[in-house]
Amino acid sequence: MIDNTIRVERAKNKMTQADLAKKVKVSRQTIHSIETGKFVPSTVLALKIARFFDVSLEDIFKLKEKKDK
Questions:
Q1: How many structural domains does the chain have?
Q2: Is there a contact between 3 and 33 (Cβ–Cβ < 8 Å)?
Q3: Which of 28, 45, 49, 52 could cross-link to 21 by cystine, CB 3.0-4.6 Å?
């Protein structure tokens, strides 16, 4: 799955989930679901979020390390 630093970026910018949701045109619940790992955003939404914070996609979203079995 994917880890993300959206909550950290929001804190740096003193934004609520609702503020970010409005900027990228999704619901607050969508932002919450992405932050908690319950929802993986589309490529377009991930790019919008990264662009809004003026960081690279890889700075916000990272693949979780796969554990060996």
A1: 1
A2: no
A3: 28
